[in-house]
Amino acid sequence: MSSMTLFILFVNIIAVLFLVLNLLFAPHNPYAEKFSSFECGFHSFLGQNRSQFNVKFFIFGLCFLLFDLEITLVFPFAVSQSNNEIYGLIVVLIFLVLITLGFVYELGKGALKIESKQNTDFSSSTNSTINISFIEKNSTRI
């Protein structure tokens, strides 16, 4: 087999492996709002044409634009990989490391966090007291 065939096979195996790992280890917490329809993450109201956007959405847009430009800059290297030598590889790796460090810095600063209105406190004390009192009322003593 040629090296290109092995490369395509290896990429497909890695993709399937990541999908299986995601299915096995991803948290699964469905709630009603996940199944509702939405447009751009905002609830629509009748008669309201414009609403204020959170600045975080613009930050996500800028990150998308930066990573889109990254792909545009790395694509010529990938296409001409047979002509590139070690110097070209080093330049692209330095570029990718800088982009990755910038992304990690954004994650560390919390710039990509958007506050959710979802209730994530599943261990509510009111639910547990209601369940305990219900069990005590309906249990029979032997």
From TrEMBL:
Tree of life domain: Eukaryota
GO-annotated molecular function? NADH dehydrogenase (ubiquinone) activity; oxidoreductase activity
The EC number on file is: 7.1.1.2
Keywords of the record: Electron transport, Membrane, Mitochondrion, NAD, Oxidoreductase, Respiratory chain, Translocase, Transmembrane, Transmembrane helix, Transport, Ubiquinone
One Pfam family of this chain: Oxidored_q4
Functional note? Core subunit of the mitochondrial membrane respiratory chain NADH dehydrogenase (Complex I) which catalyzes electron transfer from NADH through the respiratory chain, using ubiquinone as an electron acceptor. Essential for the catalytic activity of complex I.
Protein name in the entry: NADH-ubiquinone oxidoreductase chain 3
Which organism does this record belong to?
A: Chrysoporthe austroafricana
Encoding gene per record: nad3
